[in-house]
Amino acid sequence: MGRPSLAAERREQILRAAARSVARHGLAGSTQERIAAAAGMSRSHVRHYVGNRDELIDALWDHVITPYFASMRDALNDREPAARLPALVDYLFGPQMARNEDDLVIEALISGAMHDVRLRGRIYESYARLEREIAGTIRDAVPGCGQAESLQLAYALICMAFGHSTLAPLPFPATRQAGMKALAAQLLAALEAGHRAPPPPTAAG
């Protein structure tokens, strides 16, 4: 029986090293040589297991962003549509979105995308997919909500959640954090109220 391939293990090792490097040195300072050294490998190993620099950056983006999107889906699965909106707010403004080293990597990649059209498209694709998923959750929970309206609200929630996470290290009062979550819940409640069927007219006395 042949020896199992170590490709997946080596790839994960390289991507963890790349994340540490980008968090510490930024995207421009994270050369393949530096990432290879951090992973305890040669540059040729990095190219073999992950690919060229563009492929490495794409893989790194997936490495840091996919767990957030996957855990959001897990938080919403197996719930009735009406229960998904409170769960969505809890997720977007809960401990899952707390600041960690991944945020430094995500921010470095988004910053790098300002000067890299290819990377910008790659990142946009991920966030546009997240926007569509949240919008679909909203439409499932709020009958009558149209696509344009749900996408607009999904975009607002994403901006609120990621902006909230970005400012979390600053010494704003805890009431600001609670208030942002409450505001998101109010937006969704207002949407539900706006699409709630009016009560049937009562018979004249």
Summarize the main sheet.
none
Low-pLDDT regions? none
Instruction: Write down the overall geometry.
Output: elongated
How many helices?
A: 9
Helix content: over 70%
Q: Report strand %.
A: under 5%
Query: In CATH terms, what is the fold-level topology of the largest domain?
Result: Tetracycline Repressor, domain 2
| Structure class | mainly alpha
Number of domains: 2
Mean pLDDT: 91
User: H/E element string?
Assistant: HHHHHHHHH
Instruction: State the total count of DSSP E strands.
Output: 0
Rg value? 21 Å
3D structure, described in words:
Keywords: DNA-binding, Transcription, Transcription regulation. This is TetR family transcriptional regulator. Pfam families: TetR_N (PF00440). Residues 8-68 form the HTH tetR-type domain. Residues 31-50 bind DNA. This protein has helices at 7-25, 32-39, 43-49, 53-76, 81-92, 101-113, 117-141, 147-167, 174-194. It is mainly alpha-helical and 205 residues long. It folds into two domains: 8-51, Homeodomain-like (Arc Repressor Mutant, subunit A); 60-194, Tetracycline Repressor, domain 2, CATH 1.10.357. Helix 5 (81-92) packs across helix 7, helix 7 (117-141) packs across helix 8 and helix 8 packs antiparallel against helix 9 (174-194). The longest helix is centred in the middle third of the chain and has 25 residues, at 117-141.
